[in-house]
Amino acid sequence: MIQPRKTITLYFVTNDEGQTRKLVMPISYFKISAFVIAVFIVSLLAGLIDYFGLLAQSIENKKLKIENINLQKQFQVVESKLDTLQSALERVGMMTNKLKLITDTQMKDRSERLSFPAQILPEPTPSQQASERMSSEDFIQQEPLVIGDSPVNTLKGELASEKSVSNYSTLVIRIDEAVKDSALKEQSVIELWEMLSDRQSLLASTPNMKPSRGPIGSRFGYRMDPINGRQKMHAGVDITAAPGTPVRAPADGVVSFAGWDDFYGKLVSIDHGYGVLTRYAHNSQIYVQVGQKVSKFDVISATGNTGRSTGPHLHYEVRVNNIPVNPMNYILDDD
After folding, report:
1. What is the mean pLDDT of residues 190-205?
2. What pLDDT score does 155 carry?
3. Distance, CA of 68 to CA of 167 (rounded, Å)
4. Most-buried pick from 37, 76, 198, 308 (CB within 10 A)?
5. Tens-place pLDDT, residues 205-214
6. CB neighbour burial string for 202-234, b if at least 16 within 10 angstroms, e if fewer
7. Cα separation of 87 and 74, whole Å?
8. What is the third-level CATH fold of 221-330?
């Protein structure tokens, strides 16, 4: 005897009379339908949960992105301040080296302190002229006063490339190096101050400023003579200035010459003692006399175009034991 199939009847009743409907289906179909609906509901819930999770993650990512942008800005500010600090340390180092150079604190004997090699002025041989034909700017670049140390030791691989400068690890290295460098500079300045504290007379008599306002034109070193076109040693620096610009003594001293020279025109020389002599050439006016004592900042002459000159300027020389040396090493206020 065949058993009847088990069925399930669903009645759908509306508010309208006589609108009752029924749906008869095998119970197996009902179970399958219920299972599919349950899977659909679970999937829908899982999808909603995942969606809201991603939405929350997106909001968090946006917050992190904003924080990252702010951190990058702060990083750039710190890096900019570090660059400023390193520049300041370089200027302090340059100033310290110049002070050491012009006072020569490492020498014990005074005559040895202010002596320079006598072979600084030989005329170049024909074989040297080709390699020595350079502008005065190139001369300065080949013999810089101070060789700045890199803030990071590249030999140890601390700076792998220019692109890595802006990362955090490199910044930390640069900060550490700057801190060490500042400590060394501070100690160097303290030692220099202690050395100079008992030598104020020497410091007051040592040229340490630019005697006239104006940009530096021709610098110290071999150059092409602007008059005869031959290579010749330029024993000083030329400061471009309008006629009549005041020329001031860069240190205390006594006027050793004030008059006319066929080459330098109206020339003033000041003996600062300790073997140091300064010369000021091509002046239009001279305001001092031989034997007159002058102090730093005293006006001694006015710039001009006298003597063997191609235009208004001041030719400024520093001589140590009558040997010309680079005046830029004796200018602390160069700008």
Report:
1. 71
2. 37
3. 13
4. 308
5. 889 899 999 9
6. beebbbbbbbbbbebebbbbbbbeeeeeebebb
7. 20
8. Glucose Permease (Domain IIA) (2.70.70)
Rounded to 5 degrees, φ, ψ at 69 are: -60, -45
pLDDT digits (tens, 9 = 90+) for 64-88: 888 888 888 887 877 777 787 777 7
Two structure tokens written together for 213: 């306002």
Q: List the one residue out of 115, 289, 116, 293 whose CA is nearest residue 204.
A: 293
Q: Where are the domains of the chain?
A: 7-69, 74-201, 221-330
Residue 203 is encoded by which pair of tokens? Answer: 């410091």
Question: What is the longest distance spanned by two Cα atoms in the chain?
Answer: 150
> CA angle, corner 129, sides to 126 and 134, nearest 5?
175
Please give the structure tokens belonging to residue 217. 């034109």
Evaluate whether 203 touches 250 at the Cβ level (below 8 Å).
no
3-state SS of 213-266 is: CCCECCCCEEEECCCCCCEEEECCEEEECCCCCEEECCCCEEEEEEEEECCCEE
CA angle 241, 244, 247 (to 5 degrees): 70
Q: What percent of the chain has pLDDT over 70?
A: 74
232-263 confidence digits (pLDDT tens) = 899 999 999 999 999 999 999 999 999 999 99
pLDDT digits (tens, 9 = 90+) for 19-61: 777 777 777 777 888 888 899 899 889 888 988 888 888 888 8
The pLDDT value recorded for residue 290 is 95
Tokens, residue 334: 């160069």
| Token pair recorded at residue 284 | 């239009």
Cβ–Cβ under 8 Å, residues 146 and 94: yes
Long-range contacts of residues 149-157, Cβ cutoff 8 Å, at least 24 apart: 149/181, 151/86, 151/177, 151/178, 151/181, 152/177, 153/177
Mean pLDDT of the 261-289 span: 94
